[in-house]
Amino acid sequence: MTRYEAVTGPHSPSGADNPPRPSTPRTATSGMPVVAMIGGGQLARMTHQAAIALGQTLRVLSAGSDEPAAQVSADVVLGHHDDLNALRTVATGSNAVTFDHEHVPTEHLETLVAEGVNVQPPPSALIFAQDKLRMRRKLAELGIPIPDFAEVTWVGDVTKFGDDHGWPVVVKSIRGGYDGRGVWMPNDADEAEDIVRRELDRGVPLMVEEKVDLRRELSAMVGRSPFGQGAAWPVVETVQRDGQCAVVIAPAPALDEDTAIDAERMALSLAAELGVVGSMAVELFETNDGRILVNELAMRPHNSGHWTMDGCRTSQFEQHLRAVLDYPLGDTTPLAPVTVMANILGAAEAPTMSMDERLHHLFARMPDAKVHLYGKGERKDRKIGHVNVLGGAGSSADGAYVAAVREKAERAAHWMSHAEWTDGWDPHA
Ligand SMILES: Nc1ncnc2c1ncn2[C@@H]1O[C@H](COP(=O)(O)OP(=O)(O)OP(=O)(O)O)[C@@H](O)[C@H]1O
Ligand SMILES: [Mg+2]
């Protein structure tokens, strides 16, 4: 395994025992493309998996050699995403630079573009996934339905918003949030004051928006290439627990066909309008009065697209690579009438039974369950893997059938998290 380290910068791991190595990374000898991904998490790990099939090299910029993608890629640059020199190192000799998260400082990306690096999605598009306030303003300008919102510069902005729109309200950090971290729902002005003062004092820029009366959450995922080709996957339902995605049902059950087509078209035109390149998720709210509002954008593979790994002809990871390299995009046809993805989350206390033994038992009970593990340690509510279960070919996608597939996927994921069958099943009974 060859590893390259960023040779300068505050986060570079070089020291007396670990002298800097040459900063020019290896380029693939095969003549096939090298894609550099910033971030070594599970999204990069699964993109690496797709890159292998396409004969490509996925080089990752990872903060540590134990991160999910750094464990598996043969081409790892150790360094931090806010260190410009680390970014330059990983970009050198690559055909495209892309991301597994949105935390890279925009000005660094603009510097890379000015230096001739092919950054995809470009920072001019990525900014609308990085900055929730800019995203809201842009969507409003484009006439896309969104929750009412306002910028927060002091506590009074939130109390006024709550008094005008009703409590509770939703306060969000404008940058850097994920998995519900950076989202607060104060019930009244007192609660809002505590949160807003604390976060503003910590230097966290905030916005506020109305708490939407949700029927459910949906996601419209698309891929778009620089050539301008777009491809949409079916709209899915996403089930959140504690602000974090837990389950995805594809396609979204009982979603009116016209609404689904409108949402797919909206996501495709938004991708074109913003100049997005790669896979993009448009997180949606379906309201109790039947409206579809946009929550946020993610310009990378996304948890709501993990089902495509087993449930579609082209996965979101392969599509992302095709798009950033400007290949023709792949067919997004589903392979089953319904696919359910359930996240495997770390338990509060890791079970005594090893992960390996849990996998043996799962396979014994459910030979058709497709398991993806990220190589991460078990910590409470941490996403450590996911399970995809496909409905049988030819079966109808009615309510009871979808519920049965969902139950199976959730039972499998719960087993992998807790070493506990939710129906009390005992293999030795
Ligand atoms: N305006 C709102 N009204 C009602 N619920 C909301 C609102 N905004 C956010 N939520 C809930 O909080 C969750 C997390 O919010 P959001 O998607 O904005 O944050 P995030 O931390 O960036 O999420 P992600 O996990 O997608 O990175 C949403 O999926 C939704 O369940
Ligand atoms: Mg979200």
Automatic annotation (TrEMBL):
Q: Cite the InterPro entries for this sequence.
A: ATP-grasp (IPR011761), ATP-grasp_carboxylate-amine (IPR003135), ATP_grasp_subdomain_1 (IPR013815), PreATP-grasp_dom_sf (IPR016185), PurK (IPR005875), PurK_C (IPR040686), PurT/PurK_preATP-grasp (IPR054350), Rudment_hybrid_motif (IPR011054)
- Region ranges (Disordered): 1-31
Record-annotated residues binding ATP? K132, K172, E209, E210, K211, V212, E217, N295, E296
Q: Which PANTHER family match?
A: PHOSPHORIBOSYLAMINOIMIDAZOLE CARBOXYLASE, PURINE BIOSYNTHESIS PROTEIN 6/7, PUR6/7
Q: What is this protein called?
A: N5-carboxyaminoimidazole ribonucleotide synthase
- List the catalysed reactions: 5-amino-1-(5-phospho-beta-D-ribosyl)imidazole + hydrogencarbonate + ATP = 5-carboxyamino-1-(5-phospho-D-ribosyl)imidazole + ADP + phosphate + 2 H(+)
What's the source species for this entry?
A: Rhodococcus sovatensis
Q: Which GO terms describe its molecular function?
A: 5-(carboxyamino)imidazole ribonucleotide synthase activity
Keywords on record: ATP-binding, Ligase, Nucleotide-binding, Purine biosynthesis
Task: Share what the entry says about its subunit structure, partners included.
Answer: Homodimer.
Write out the pathway annotation from the protein's UniProt entry. Answer: Purine metabolism; IMP biosynthesis via de novo pathway; 5-amino-1-(5-phospho-D-ribosyl)imidazole-4-carboxylate from 5-amino-1-(5-phospho-D-ribosyl)imidazole (N5-CAIR route): step 1/2
Domain ATP-grasp, first and last residues per copy: 136-325
Q: What does this protein do?
A: Catalyzes the ATP-dependent conversion of 5-aminoimidazole ribonucleotide (AIR) and HCO(3)- to N5-carboxyaminoimidazole ribonucleotide (N5-CAIR).
Family statement: Belongs to the PurK/PurT family.
Q: What class of enzyme is it?
A: ligase
Assigned EC number = 6.3.4.18
